[in-house]
Amino acid sequence: YGMLLPNQADxxxxxxxxxIRQWEGNSYDIWGWYIIVPQSExxxxxxxxxxxxxxxxxxxxxxxxxxxxxxxxxxxxxLDLCRSAGIGVFLFxxxxxxxxxxxxxPQANAAIASYTEKIQSDYKVRVIxxxxxxxxxxxxxxxxxxxxxxxxxxxxxxADELSNP
Length: 165
Known about the structure:
Radius of gyration: 17 Å
Distance between the termini: 28 Å
Order of helices and strands: HHHEHHEH
Number of helices: 6
Shape: globular
Largest sheet: 2 strands, parallel
Strand content: under 5%
Helix content: 40-55%
């Protein structure tokens, strides 16, 4: 719902780009978001999409939430590469509606926080946790994908957050 991969390098500068609307024949707003994403959906549509997300992720919300060795090695390898190249890095968690956050068992939140804190400590990287920025369902399509209303609010907040070291 956000933007096509080739456009991310330009769009993620978080500057309005008038020419972005014509790229690849798609309709983008000045921030790089697809205009076709709805402002909001009726509550019944949101609930149906949330239920579909619950079914999709039900197995992911079980278990111990320990990152696999491969995922941990890949993340650390990428952070090592960025460090050696002098590239600044931050970790980021996207917003999630209260409904979607309720899917996480308590031990999952603790495991994710512990792992994130360990990476932050080991690599001295900033962590931006945006899960609570937009909690209401009227900002989401399904509890974890932003609609146009949520995307606009998120983008402004994200730009503000990045401007504060």
